Amino acid sequence: MGTLSLAGLTPQTRLTSSTSAPIAGQNSATVEVREDVTRGIAKYVVAGKYDDLPAAVYKEARRTLLNWAGCTVGGSRHETLDAAISALAPFSGPPQASLLGRRERMDILHASLMNGISSHVFDFDDTHLKTVIHPAGPVVSALLALSEFRPVSGKDFLNAMVLGIEVECRIGNAVYPAHYDRGWHITGTAGVFGSAAATGRILGLSEQQMVWALGLAATQPVGLREMFGSMTKAFHPGRAAQNGLTAALLASRNFTSSDVGLEGKSGWANVLSTTRNYAESRSPAVS
Question: Which residues sit opposite 128 in a β-bridge?
């Protein structure tokens, strides 16, 4: 499943060349600074409408949701979930949301974490082939938890899901493969943006609030490839779901962040990747 086919968008003309940011142990290099990337994505998410989704995208969205549900239920009895729930359940708040495949309920932040972990335990979840992001885990885990607390229509749910997946994969496109080669688990580091965008859309964030939500997401990257082969790999999409939902909730109450969280000199893309192509992150609607 690729982002261009999922959201019905068309390829962009390359806006800038990829440039290198200085990192420890490397020679000095150019840092690319733009001022429109985070806001452009925020505009796209706030404006995106369900009625604009092509029929093929609607079909793929339903398949993605079904795949996520199957993977999450399938992983729900794994020892990874048992350990996580045992450790954190005593500190969970009100039982607001379900843990798929289990009887326990937790507050929406912990439920998004647990369902995100469960969805990735067996690594059978959907994959964006260009970046190897598993996009549904961070997005749907957060959306489902929020939707149990704040009911939404099926159309709004699917629209938010598509927007969130589009955002995380486009951001991933902008820094792959350099970001991944540095050792970051891109499902977690890019997935947090998908979660923030999707849940922010359900919360009805304004453009400025969405900018803040994306900035809050940018400051919460999670996932090192060193953790592959351990329980912590599945933790990454779970924490991305939880962190993105936290970002959207904070932004909904006007908790501020940088307006250039993605593209700023010390922002996410320049700090976490040695190259970036911001054209890959943009939508035709906001170019």
Answer: 133
Q: What domains, with CATH codes, occur in the chain?
A: 3-17+38-281 (1.10.4100.10)
pLDDT by position in tens, the chain (length 287): 333 334 333 333 222 333 334 434 333 445 666 669 999 999 999 999 999 999 999 999 999 999 999 999 999 999 999 999 999 999 999 999 999 999 999 999 999 999 999 999 999 999 999 999 999 999 999 999 999 999 999 999 999 999 999 999 999 999 999 999 999 999 999 999 999 999 999 999 999 999 999 999 999 999 999 999 999 999 999 999 999 999 999 999 999 999 999 999 999 999 999 999 999 887 544 33
Q: Which residues, listed in sequence order, are joined to residue 98 by a DSSP beta bridge?
A: 105
Residue with tokens 């955002």: 167
Burial class of 173 by CB neighbour count within 10 A (0 to 12, 13 to 18, 19+)? buried
Question: Does the N-terminal peptide bond of residue 54 adopt cis geometry, omega within 30 degrees of 0?
Answer: no
- Return d(Cα 262, Cα 266) in angstroms, integer: 9
pTM, rounded to two decimals: 0.89
Q: 3-state DSSP call for residue 236?
A: helix
87, with CB counted inside 10 A (0-12, 13-18, 19+), is exposed
